[in-house]
Amino acid sequence: MLVDWFIVLASIGYLLVLFAVAYIADKRAERGAGITSHPYIYALSLGVYCTSWTFYGSVGRAASSGLDFLPIYIGPTLVFILWWLVIRKIIRITKAHRITSIADFISSRYGKSSRMSILVTVIAVVGIVPYISLQLKAVATSFNVLKQYPEVIAPSYSPPIATVADTAFWVALVMALFAILFGTRTVDNSEHHEGVVVAIAFESVVKLLAFLAVGIFVTYGLYDGLGDLFAKASAYPELVKLMTFEQEGAYTTWITLTTLSMVAAICLPRQFQVMAVENVNEPELRKGAWLFPLYLLAINIFVLPIALGGLLQFPDGAVNADTFVLTLPMAHHQEWLALFVFLGGLSAATGMVIVATIALSTMVSNDLVMPALLQLKWLGLTERGDFTGIVLFVRRSSILLILFLGYAYFRFLGESDALVTIGLISFAAVFQFAPAMLGGMFWKGGNRSGALTGLFLGFIVWAYTLLLPSFAKSGILPLSFITEGPLGIELLKPYALFDLQGLDNLTHALFWTTVINVGAYVFVSLYSRHSALERVQGALFVDVFRYADQGPRSQIWQGSALVEDLFNLLVRFIGRARADRAFSNYFRDRGLERRRVTTADADLVNFTERLMAGAIGTASARVMISSVVKGEAVRIEEVMKILEETSQVIEYSQSLEQKSFELESTTRQLRAANERLKELDRLKDEFLSTVSHELRTPLTSIRSFSEILSDHPDLDEAEKSRFLRIIVKESVRLTRLINQVLDLAKIEAGQMEWVVEKLDVARVIENSMEAMSALLSERTIQLEKDIWANLPAVKGDRDRLMQVIVNLLSNAVKFCDPDKGRVKVSVRRSGPELVVLVSDNGRGIPWISREKIFEKFHQSREGLTDKPHGTGLGLSISRQIVEYFGGRLELVESSNKGSVFGVFLPVEEGKDQIQVGE
Amino acid sequence: MPQTVLVVEDEPHIVDSLSFLMKKAGFDVFIARDGDAALRMVESCPPDLMLLDIMLPRRDGFDVLKSVRSNPAWRDIRVILLTAKGRDVDRLKGMELGADDFVTKPFSTKEVVRLVRQHLGVEEKTA
């Protein structure tokens, strides 16, 4: 069943699904419902790190050198966990400067140097093309292995003579198609390729599932779990070696591989693409930082078991270990599993190729082709109206070109090394970016000359110690190049440069490239001139978090440009609609009217430059902008120097101002505190004298009449008894006053003893009214009540609440209409509050006094001359009681027809019904 | 013609007792319940002596005293201040404003009657 056409059909089917996923994601994004900002999608898209190299090659490496496959995954794990902040900084810089690729990143840091971006692009292309060809090779090899089903043959792959009959060719073509369709829809690369990212995330899932499926099949299908597998393997001494570190130099290899892969996880163009350029939100990184390592862990769990299983099943070495993932299911007639594995490998390969070609094509078009085209005056491009078509054409051609190069490399050189070795050569190439990139982010001293020199020399040494020997191995160069050195010069042997021996080839290469690259970068940076722009860009990169709010302002343009010119320039690169939108937004954000502004300020020039950078790269954008802006850029050193001095003076005077302001504020606070103390003292004094006054008043009456009675025994009986009644009444008043003053003192001192319980307010009111009945019966007063049923409970002290109600009722009785007195009590619920309203039909209280009446000893003296005075404390105490239970006591309403007092009590939470015991 | 005493006081029971005492002592008694009423009373028929409470509604005792003393025609009116606060500041302030004497509540009825008589130059009757 697994014949050619079926496998091809399945592959096409899979790719169609991929197209559909990408298409749907793009459509969603157009509707503004993109999902790439989801942290899982982000983490999965980072999984593009795991290529067919992981899928097939890890097992191969594990089978030949044991745990050596692991560092490739430990590296990125370390990066995402330990260098989390570094990545955040990269993302921040990328967004702030609308960086479109790693070449853009590095060249932008070093003064938007076009030489820099060309060099980076060349290195990236030369370094990554073998990697792409590796993917093509993996797909072709796995296809050829699979179609032999059920035979498991030693896959010695030899490409057919005719290219059209070659699987790899067609694979490359389909991938190019995909990359063109979904990677070059718009010119602005700082915009996101939603479809691509989601498709990549989807592929990450497919390859993980396929790999886990084989792992489980081998571990639990062919053997009884890991224990059984390892036990069986332990019987063979050569297999035991794979599980330990016994090989010589294993530690240096580990360190080398870990270092390489740490850098690769950031500097590989495709990783930079998904990690920084496609990143939608910085916060995704937080989750990605642990999800991605988790993904790496998952895809590595079964590497060693599969390798051991393969070595046990095919002991004679007839089967290439790189194909164990595929051949193990085949040997056991699991055709569906085998097909699934093939598709998993295909997904791993396509994912890498698509992202890598998009990233590389952006670099090639922005940093190589476009600047060159713009330089060629005779093409007349700078006068041309619309650039978008050209940019897209260049980018699409670049994709085809890169895939063609990959295919060519595969056709002519692909047979020499195992998968892993080719991959590592690529890693070592992008490793050359690390000093310039990381150094540039943290060291303002690094400059363009240093970075260029370091990068260039590093690249040369890389080519000499890794690339050329691999050519030699595949026969393009004589093998003596490796064994005897070029022209027989032993000192220049590429694997033992300057007689450095005892290291594996990779560590050897890494050592020399690092020494020379970093050395040149630092040395030249220290001893060469920094241009103004470099210095500014350096500061903007290193201090990106400080400048984040201001946006990148790399160039201070002294001259002026016409808004119209800038606009027309922009239209040529990003199209009229988008340019229109961008300018409209720009002016709207600044509250300007676009029609009124004719001369562009530096801000607008920078804005335009950044927009163009998104389309054609920073270096080209700078060239284009300077063609429009008249006049020279100010010498930045001078500006910086002036700014620095000014800012120092400003800082100093600001700190002085700050100091004196603080002093002033402290003085003010002290004064206020002092005033407050005085005020409190005065209030206390006032209170004491008021209390004294209030107590003395009834006492005066009592004493006077007592003395009168005792001094005038001849008074008539009626008068005697009237005087006695006064004495009794005033005694009662005095007692009440003393009680209330004590109450108040206790509440205010926090010494009141409260008996807090859940209260049925309706019942408290009934009780209060009963207590009042004696007083009410003395007068003809109509008392109404309106109490809702099923009222919720409130928290309070029964006696105190009664005190409040009685106080309000007696006030109402006292102040209601003297002839047709009417007092009404109503209780109802209003939202979270229980409301008790006590109203009377008296003369009302002037609205202006609505708060005064709650002050201590405030007494209504009007119209009451013949009535016994209250103490002036009742309302004050009542309010304090109600407030103690979180409620309010207010005069709700007052007019000449009467007044209404309201008690608002918070309803006991969670209990809607009364649950009062007794 | 008996001498007149104006009782200025807002507490009804205290008014009661003072007017009883003054009448018994043989004076004619007028009553005012607040500061404004007191001044109106002084204007319409100036008394020989005022028993003037300090804490009064609307216009306090000090204010009334000041007005009385500011008019030369009323310079001869004796004024005895009544206070329930019993603070020295009040006593001092009252004396400065030209009060003739000062009584602190709760007062001794005998003392009040004695003071009134003293200031009006009336010989004490034998009790």
Task: Give the number of helices of chain B.
Answer: 5
Percentage of residues assigned to helices of chain A: 55-70%
Low-confidence stretches of chain A are 157-162, 548-558, 631-639, 862-868, 911-918
What is the H/E order of chain B?
Answer: EHEHEHEHEH
State mean pLDDT of chain B (0 to 100 scale). Answer: 87
Q: Which structural category do the helix and sheet elements of chain A fall into?
A: mainly alpha
- The CATH topology assignment of the largest domain in chain A is Sodium/glucose cotransporter
CATH architecture term of the largest domain in chain A? Up-down Bundle
- CATH class descriptor name of the largest domain in chain A: Mainly Alpha
Quaternary structure annotation: heterodimer
Q: What CATH architecture label of chain B applies?
A: 3-Layer(aba) Sandwich
How would you name the CATH homologous superfamily of chain B? Response regulator
Number of domains of chain A: 5
Given as residue ranges, the uncertain stretches of chain B (5+ residues, pLDDT < 50) are none
Protein name (chain B): Response regulator
Domain Response regulatory (chain B): 4-120
Modified residues (4-aspartylphosphate) (chain B): 53
Keywords (chain B): Phosphoprotein
What this model shows, in words?
The complex is a heterodimer of chains A (918) and B (127). Chain A is mainly α and 918 residues long. Chain A has five domains: 4-415, Sodium/glucose cotransporter; 432-549, no CATH class; 555-634, no CATH class; 647-744, Helix Hairpins (Orthogonal Bundle); 753-906, Heat Shock Protein 90 (2-Layer Sandwich), CATH 3.30.565.10. Chain A starts with a helix and ends in a 12-residue tail after the last strand. Chain B has one domain: Response regulator (Rossmann fold, 3-Layer(aba) Sandwich). A five-stranded parallel β-sheet of chain B has the order 2-1-3-4-5, with helices on both faces. In chain B, strand 3 (49-53), helix 3 and strand 4 (78-83) form a beta-alpha-beta unit. In chain B, helix 2 packs parallel to helix 3. The radius of gyration of chain B is 13 Å and the shape is globular. The relative contact order of chain B is 0.18. The mean pLDDT of chain B is 87. The A-B interface holds A 689, 692-694, 696-697, 699-705, 707-708, 711-712, 726, 730, 861, 865-866, 869 and B 10-14, 16-18, 20-21, 24, 33, 55, 57, 84-87, 104-110, 127.
